[in-house]
Protein 1
Amino acid sequence: MALLLSLSLIIAMLIALICWAGARRAGGSFIKWSGALLICALVVEVIALVLRSCGLHNTLLYNIFTCIELLFFLRLVKVMVPDRKRAVTMSGAVGLIAMAVNYVRYKEPDFLLTEGIIIVAAIMTGWSMVVLWRAAQHSERPLIRTPSFWFYMGAMVYFGGIVPFVGMMFYLYQNDRHLTALLYGIINVLAVLRYLLTAWAYRLARAQRMWE
Amino acid sequence: MTFDQLALPVIVATILLLLTFGFVGALLVVNNTRRIRHRAELAEADLRREREVLSAEREATQQTLREVGRELHDNVGQLLTVAQMGLNTVMETTVTDARLETVRDALDNGIEEVRRLGHSLNSDLWEQRSFVDAISAEAERIERVGRITAHVLVKGEVPALPPDASTILFRIFQETVTNALKHSGADRLDITLSGDPTFTLTIADNGRGFDGERTTAHGGLVNIPKRCALIGFDAHCVSTPDHGCTWTFTQRSGHGA
């Protein structure tokens, strides 16, 4: 089941990557940075799958990628909300500090930094909602035809889902491994949904030759 | 794994789903409101631009009319007056000739017409006389020069128009009357001025009329509505064969003096 979900996620990412390649002509720094984030995520997911297949821990990889993803994502938020650069930078610092504090507390590289990940996910959920709300307030086109709407909707659903489900996993891990695995599966499903929505956003950007 | 253990994730997932739907719904409502407002703003901007264009056109038209009026009064009028004086001198010094009398009468009429035309084109004169007075004077003149009776009826209090609008509407009135005199074969004109609820001028003749559907729109039929639009008026023409023709000029709401 876990393998199937991982493969589904990689396929969703590949679809998004193909759509991104088609949308590159839409131009702009958003396409550039979001493409970089997508490639990073794909590489991490493939390496994580290989490590797991070899019976090795991949949590360290996810911990590091959480920090990288936060930086990339906040860079994308800065593109969309240029008047809030300071707040975006501050929230990025808070996220990184949370990850560092979480690491210092446990000092265990093979343990998922759950508390830090929850805080980072909450930050990214919050910014996704801010960007979506702004797009709704300022877009002169229907929101469903706006590429950024689908991109940040995917991000909001995924990161918004991480906060409660990873939180629950944190407390259930000791008592019920099976339920924990199920919750992890839900997060994987949300990730698949996120990348499919991202692919749709790129497809719209390609058709409209612009990213908004 | 028991039902109780599953309950928490299910409840959380349901709440998340509901929150997401609620947020997306709110986004769509906000976006829709924004787009409606944007469309209204665009329409308002278009209207403003259209008004500015109309105002500029009106100003240009007014300026041209004023120039023509001044030229008629100061230049052509003066030349005709000199000719009149010369003719009078000739008639005083030579034997009276009936043909010279005819020429002098024609010259007198010509000078009077030029003076009247010059005045009618000069918007400054609207400060001194009302539109109703101008229409009444014009009706009297029409009766004097043509084989037609012109009745003027004023209903209620007719509001004053801006000078440039008065000039253009007066010229339109003259053109309408000239058309009736030339083409309709009418022997009666009914001119009605009304100020209730908005400024309305109606000119009805009892001539042969025309079939609106068969008559090709040209000249006055096309230009009169356009010129009316410049001053915020709507022009409407109703005519049927053998039942005369009625022009109605109504001031649009929001274009009051």
Protein 2
Amino acid sequence: MSDFSSRGVQVAAVSVDSVEINRAHAQKLHFTFPLLSDAGAAAIRAYDLLHEGAGPKHTDIARPAEFFVDGSGVVRWVNLTENIAVRARPEQALAAIDAAQAHP
Amino acid sequence: MKRRWNWRLWAGFLATVAAVFSYEFFSRFPVTRDFPWANLLLFVIAFVLLGQGLVRAFKRPAQYRGRIFGSIATAIALAVFGLFSYELFYVVRQVPRSAGAPQVGQKATPFKLPDQTGKTVSLTELISPNGAVLIFYRGHW
């Protein structure tokens, strides 16, 4: 996390989980970054990340994906994981951020 | 003559159980989660032991017990391995195409969502001034 803040970059996570679930998880895992609740999956749909029926009781959830959006709102890096067991490593995002900050 | 206990069948069956139940443990480390080689190794050990146990039970039934138990244990192990492989090599790769997701160079669609304190946060605020990493995830359940 300090790698991101040392670069002046914020981190935010988005899922369909409720504000209450996010609060409990942020406490339990000592997360200091925002966990955003997209309960209606509006943002998830806008980003075309909806995974219909993949949640418990066949609820719609997001498929995993990461983006780095620069200060002017332009996407500079996208990672759409093809295997949900594989999580993005922070090194990939950091390398993308460094590249973007070197060539604004 | 009293037939010997065919320990390899039991060990093979235990290794199968370990191969499945250790997934949760190994999935905590990227090196063993990205490709579940530790679990596959346990399955290999399990099948080697079960195979050796079955050979002894069937080729030398006068010396070794376990034809029935061995057959059942191996059938269960094969079914378990089949389910495990199906989940970890097929199901986890079934993700939607997301062809409409923003690509590099495009503007990120703005949004306003509540954070864990209930405060509404907008994309515009997040990216100011040096940008932000957005992590969309399945959810914790």
